[in-house]
């Protein structure tokens, strides 16, 4: 699906190193908050995991986003 969207909108993919600390330091605080919500859960499928990730993101409050970018 992602590849189809990239082709449809003629977007290019930028190459970068995986797990690079240079990617987006401001987001690390958000990942920690998401991990709190997901800690200890096992998922039966990738779809279940994606749904749980989206729910974790929805549960983050505005202050979480602001503090993540302020700390950067």
UniProtKB/TrEMBL annotation:
<protein>
    <submittedName>
        <fullName>Histone-lysine N-methyltransferase SETMAR</fullName>
    </submittedName>
</protein>
<dbReference type="InterPro" id="IPR036397">
    <property type="entry name" value="RNaseH_sf"/>
</dbReference>
<dbReference type="GO" id="GO:0003676">
    <property type="term" value="F:nucleic acid binding"/>
</dbReference>
<dbReference type="InterPro" id="IPR052709">
    <property type="entry name" value="Transposase-MT_Hybrid"/>
</dbReference>
């Amino acid at each position: 699906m992602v590849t189809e969207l990239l082709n449809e909108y003629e977007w290019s993919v930028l190459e970068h190193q995986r797990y690079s600390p240079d990617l987006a330091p401001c987001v690390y605080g958000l990942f920690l908050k998401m991990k709190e919500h997901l800690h200890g859960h096992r998922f039966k499928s990738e779809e279940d995991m994606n749904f749980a990730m989206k729910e974790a993101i929805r549960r983050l409050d505005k202050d979480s986003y602001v503090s993540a970018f302020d700390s950067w």
